[in-house]
Amino acid sequence: MTAIAAPSASATTGSGRLPRRMPWMLLIASFAISAVVFAVANLGADPADFNIALAVVVGMLIYMVLIFAISSIAESRRRAVDRLMTALVSAAFVLALLPLISLLYTVVINGLARFDTEFFTFSMRNIVGAGGGAIHALWGTVLITLGATVISVPIGLMTSIYLVEYGQGRKLARGITFLVDVMTGIPSIVAGLFIYSVFALLVAPGTRIGVMGSLSLSVLMIPVVVRGSEELLRIVPNELREAAYALGVPKWLTILRVVLPTSIAGITTSVMLAVARVIGETAPLLLTVGMVQGMNLNMFSGQMATLPVFSYMQSKYPGVPPDAYLDRAWAAALALILIVMVLNLIARWVAKVFAPKTAGR
């Protein structure tokens, strides 16, 4: 009987293999080719008109063609298909990031024109046309957001503690959960109208002060803090609570010394997400805080300026020359993004410092 020879490895797979760095080199080269093509097409135009999103998409397409062709020649068709599928999955991830990349690029390119010392040291009092700054709006944003955080975090955290530690299975807890879910989807303009109506009835119609802005933002923050903190408190192992109870520690002290420190890292992140959710809101602040051209640090008297409203007013009602107003609007947007980034960095630092230490750390 004649034995049937097995097909050789060279008949089904390529004899070569791409160097480990080759895919990264091809990716960099693809993005470089795409960037050069779009830069040449954008010669003489405003740098802000450079279409970074389309350049990234074209770069990924060039990479997929190159990696598939080169892998088919140097390796095998099976490995080439595998590399192509990996590139497609990576391209899907990049595609999801494109709106963020495009947004950041546009804001940075347009905002740097007025991102100078004058912008952070002067207000718009007695300023017509070019010049001026947004120091009054910057302080207004910080104070109003800080006030909203001081109001929202204790209420939201205590509500989540009740839902997890005391209210399991009770009708009141189910009702609170339902209301929190409903409040999560409330449009921001509704929160502003609610606070404006309350102060119109209690104080006087047309009242606009800084504390009204904090209250309207807290209406939006509280549901986010409650839902985030609730989920994080639920994942604390029950064994930790039972160990504290076995030592005779009362429940309130167990929550304070065991449950909260264990979940403090996640709770801090949840609070920062809530702050990022409201710090850029414009509609409720237009209704409750208004807009002024000078500095006002009194939360309980007079209108205040905020960065979102400042940016909106500068772009919505540009004067002469209009470019000066639009530059200030973009600079305010860039400052707002940087504030959110700094807050997230602070949150990570707080989470790292106050998170419970383990043997491996």
From TrEMBL:
<keyword id="KW-0592">Phosphate transport</keyword>
<dbReference type="InterPro" id="IPR000515">
    <property type="entry name" value="MetI-like"/>
</dbReference>
<feature type="transmembrane region" description="Helical">
    <location>
        <begin position="50"/>
        <end position="74"/>
    </location>
</feature>
<dbReference type="InterPro" id="IPR005672">
    <property type="entry name" value="Phosphate_PstA"/>
</dbReference>
<feature type="transmembrane region" description="Helical">
    <location>
        <begin position="24"/>
        <end position="44"/>
    </location>
</feature>
<comment type="similarity">
    <text>Belongs to the binding-protein-dependent transport system permease family. CysTW subfamily.</text>
</comment>
<keyword id="KW-0813">Transport</keyword>
<dbReference type="Pfam" id="PF00528">
    <property type="entry name" value="BPD_transp_1"/>
</dbReference>
<feature type="domain" description="ABC transmembrane type-1">
    <location>
        <begin position="138"/>
        <end position="347"/>
    </location>
</feature>
<protein>
    <recommendedName>
        <fullName>Phosphate transport system permease protein PstA</fullName>
    </recommendedName>
</protein>
<keyword id="KW-1133">Transmembrane helix</keyword>
<comment type="function">
    <text>Part of the binding-protein-dependent transport system for phosphate; probably responsible for the translocation of the substrate across the membrane.</text>
</comment>
<feature type="transmembrane region" description="Helical">
    <location>
        <begin position="258"/>
        <end position="279"/>
    </location>
</feature>
<keyword id="KW-0812">Transmembrane</keyword>
<dbReference type="InterPro" id="IPR035906">
    <property type="entry name" value="MetI-like_sf"/>
</dbReference>
<keyword id="KW-1003">Cell membrane</keyword>
<keyword id="KW-0472">Membrane</keyword>
<feature type="transmembrane region" description="Helical">
    <location>
        <begin position="133"/>
        <end position="164"/>
    </location>
</feature>
<feature type="transmembrane region" description="Helical">
    <location>
        <begin position="329"/>
        <end position="351"/>
    </location>
</feature>
<feature type="transmembrane region" description="Helical">
    <location>
        <begin position="176"/>
        <end position="203"/>
    </location>
</feature>
<dbReference type="InterPro" id="IPR051408">
    <property type="entry name" value="Phosphate_transprt_permease"/>
</dbReference>
<feature type="transmembrane region" description="Helical">
    <location>
        <begin position="86"/>
        <end position="113"/>
    </location>
</feature>
